[in-house]
């Protein structure tokens, strides 16, 4: 019997790559960030086998699993062999039991120098839960404040491209953080996956300050860890970004309408806003949207909804900048914090 390794042992290896051998659905729902998917059973096969197993016919379920898995072994061997040329390859399933153990033992017997994650994805998740708060509290944060459309995300992107520590929560959550924040974007990750992405990002930072945008408690359907929100809100490093109304309109228009499918999402969002701005106002905005009067729609949303419901709380800002040019804003922030 070949021995499995703990996550703590594996992450210290050079060129480690995790291979999730679960089905495509399980992989898409949540996995270890950076992992690749080589399923030993696909979605349909897993459902069929689970149904038979849960009905009590354990022996037939095992026979069926062997039948489905065996036809994939040659292809899996080739893929793992190729990966092993430049990486330390580690297999995992959910609990580190049947799927990854069987495949690991077969591949090891065939001479592949690969590893298996002890306890599977569940043990990785336990590691994240036990260490996320400590990791959050180990960093110092610069909190970027400002109303919708002032260019906070643009500034964060420039800082990140300049190799600074940037925690872009909206990017990790795949959502812009407001009721229209999903316009033109794909589905958000699960809460567990969001926390894993957050953990992975925080691990990558050095000891210099971390730049983060001030967010509400939730980004779309996802909860920001309370300790993180408290940490950046209580930071002594608070930055306020301002911008003219027209510049804000132009930024929002550029960001939200660059995807041709975003208009339908925006219409749905405006309908949801009817409880805040009234059904009549929602209908007027949708008519203007269909007539491509985008500036008027965005101005109404800014003045009648966003600035009221997403007001910036009064703080002692140690730096205030009027954003005419996001590149220059980012440069000023880097100079001020000497990073």
Structure characterization notes:
One of its GO terms (molecular function) is tRNA 2-selenouridine synthase activity. It holds the Pfam family Rhodanese. It is a single chain. The chain has 339 residues and is of the alpha/beta class. Helix content is 53%, strand content 12%. It is built from 17 helices and eleven strands. It has helices at residues 7-10, 24-29, 43-54, 58-70, 73-84, 98-109, 120-137, 152-161, 169-173, 191-203, 226-233, 245-256, 262-272, 274-277, 279-290, 294-309, 326-336, and strands at 16-20, 36-37, 88-92, 115-116, 141-146, 166-167, 210-213, 218-219, 222-223, 237-242, 319-322. The protein is globular, with a radius of gyration of 24 Å.
**Major β-sheet strand ordering:** 6-7-5-10-11
> What is the H/E order?
HEHEHHHEHEHEHEHHEEEHEHHHHHEH
Instruction: Tell me the count of domains.
Output: 2
Q: In the CATH classification, which architecture of the largest domain applies?
A: 3-Layer(aba) Sandwich
Mean pLDDT, rounded to whole units? 95
State the helicity in percent bands: 40-55%
Q: Given this structure, which CATH class of the largest domain is correct?
A: Alpha Beta
Number of helices: 17
């Amino acid at each position: 019997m070949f021995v499995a390794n703990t996550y703590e042992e594996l992450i210290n290896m050079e060129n480690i790559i995790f291979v999730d051998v679960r089905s495509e659905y399980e992989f898409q729902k949540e996995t270890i960030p950076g992992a690749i998917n080589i399923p030993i059973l696909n979605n349909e096969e897993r459902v069929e086998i689970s149904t038979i197993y849960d009905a009590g016919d354990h022996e037939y379920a095992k026979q069926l699993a062997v039948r489905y898995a065996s036809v994939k072994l040659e292809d899996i061997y080739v893929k793992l062999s190729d990966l092993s040329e430049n990486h330390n390859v580690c297999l995992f399933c959910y609990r580190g039991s049947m799927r990854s153990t069987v495949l690991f033992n077969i591949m090891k017997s065939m001479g592949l120098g690969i590893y298996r994650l002890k306890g599977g994805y569940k043990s990785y998740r336990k590691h994240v839960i036990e260490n996320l708060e400590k990791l959050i509290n180990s960093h110092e944060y610069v909190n970027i404040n400002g109303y919708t459309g002032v260019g906070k995300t643009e500034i964060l992107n420039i800082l990140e491209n300049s190799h600074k520590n940037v925690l872009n929560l909206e990017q990790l959550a795949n959502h812009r953080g407001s009721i229209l924040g999903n316009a033109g974007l794909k589905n958000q990750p699960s809460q567990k996956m969001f926390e894993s992405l957050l953990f992975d990002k925080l691990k990558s930072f050095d000891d210099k300050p971390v730049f983060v945008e001030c967010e509400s408690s939730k980004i779309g359907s996802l909860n920001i860890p309370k300790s993180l929100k408290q940490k950046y809100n209580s930071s002594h490093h608070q930055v306020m970004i301002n911008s003219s109304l027209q510049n804000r309109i132009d930024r929002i228009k550029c960001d939200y309408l660059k995807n041709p499918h975003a208009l339908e999402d925006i219409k749905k969002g405006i309908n949801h806003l009817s409880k805040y701005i009234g059904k009549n106002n929602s209908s007027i905005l949708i008519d203007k949207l269909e007539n491509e009067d985008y500036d008027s729609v965005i101005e109404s949303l800014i003045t009648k909804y966003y600035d009221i419901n997403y007001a910036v709380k009064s703080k002692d800002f140690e730096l205030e900048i009027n954003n005419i040019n996001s590149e220059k804003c980012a440069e000023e922030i880097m100079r001020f914090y000497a990073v």
